[in-house]
């Protein structure tokens, strides 16, 4: 595995790879790797000739009072995991490398951002699409891999790639979970022992809520999830059912939906979701 840290280095290496006619898979991360990230690498290794992973904790997507400074970092461990999983190029720039000065141009996401996480984190997805625009430009990937746990981010990134005509295919990879159903996340390390015990209720509530939706509709399903989550000590940030990937309030004719929730514990905010399709007699989840 080759580790690169400058724009000049990554551009030259990508140029050489492209000259050889090899396909590039891209896995953007903020580090502190877990099995969810590594599942993205696995898909990239299977589908592409060369896999590039970026590790960059992007300050533009953290708002005031959010956890940029204490976001978990362990570069030595990340390097070992990335290499073992099959990453060919690890791009690990510092902030000044990607943002050498206050940017004169940024990217703004105008759709799919005013609900779910975006409703309480104004500007967050502007930071996401700005850094991804830079990385897509530098790495020029044939395919880019994102985890479905961050379903709103996937929807926003699909909009970015489509609107700005980035020549990369956005691949969504199913959520990787612990044995008890908790979605793997870099922030899980901040849960107390009691909170870790409670956290799997989030996914269980979403599963039950999706079934309630088919029988009783949107309002009843949201209320059911709310009742289920009352058993945890964390504060509910949101519970919502929307069309996917458009993230609009569904009508009776909409059949592909997302049921998503966010819960704030003392030191960690956890998100999870189920994307499901409705049929006449059942709910078919996609993960």
TrEMBL record:
Subcellular location(s): the record lists: Cytoplasm
Establish whether keyword Nucleotide-binding is in the entry: yes
Q: Which residues bind ATP?
A: 30-37, 147-150, 176, 184-187
Name the positions where (R)-pantoate binds.
Answer: 61, 153
**InterPro entries in the record:** Cyt_trans-like, Pantoate_ligase, Pantoate_ligase_C, Rossmann-like_a/b/a_fold
Q: Which GO terms describe its molecular function?
A: ATP binding; pantoate-beta-alanine ligase activity
Protein's job: Catalyzes the condensation of pantoate with beta-alanine in an ATP-dependent reaction via a pantoyl-adenylate intermediate.
The protein's name is: Pantothenate synthetase
């Amino acid at each position: 595995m080759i580790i690169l840290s400058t724009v000049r280095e990554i551009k030259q290496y990508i140029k050489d790879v492209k000259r050889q006619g090899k396909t590039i898979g891209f896995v953007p991360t903020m580090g502190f790797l877990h099995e969810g990230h590594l599942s993205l690498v696995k898909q990239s290794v299977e589908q592409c000739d060369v896999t590039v992973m970026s590790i960059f904790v992007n300050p533009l997507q953290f708002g005031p009072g959010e956890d940029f400074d204490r976001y978990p970092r362990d570069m030595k461990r990340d390097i070992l995991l990335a290499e073992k999983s099959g990453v060919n190029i690890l791009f690990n720039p510092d902030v000044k490398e990607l943002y050498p000065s206050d940017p004169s141009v940024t990217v703004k996401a105008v759709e799919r951002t005013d609900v779910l996480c975006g409703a309480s984190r104004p500007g967050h997805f502007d930071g996401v699409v700005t850094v991804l625009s830079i990385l897509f430009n530098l790495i020029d990937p044939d395919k880019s891999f994102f985890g479905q746990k961050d379903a709103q981010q996937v929807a926003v990134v699909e909009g970015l790639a489509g609107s700005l005509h980035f020549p990369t295919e956005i691949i969504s990879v199913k959520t990787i979970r612990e044995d008890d159903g908790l979605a793997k996340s870099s922030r899980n390390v901040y849960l107390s022992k009691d909170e870790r015990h409670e956290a799997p209720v989030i996914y269980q509530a979403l599963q039950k809520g999706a079934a309630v939706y088919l029988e009783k509709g949107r309002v009843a399903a949201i209320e059911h999830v709310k009742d289920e989550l009352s058993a945890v000590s964390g504060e509910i940030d949101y519970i919502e059912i929307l069309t996917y990937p458009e993230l609009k309030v569904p009508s009776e004719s909409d059949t592909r939906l997302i049921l998503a929730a966010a819960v704030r514990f003392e030191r960690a905010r956890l998100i999870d979701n189920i994307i499901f399709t409705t049929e006449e007699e059942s709910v078919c989840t996609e993960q």
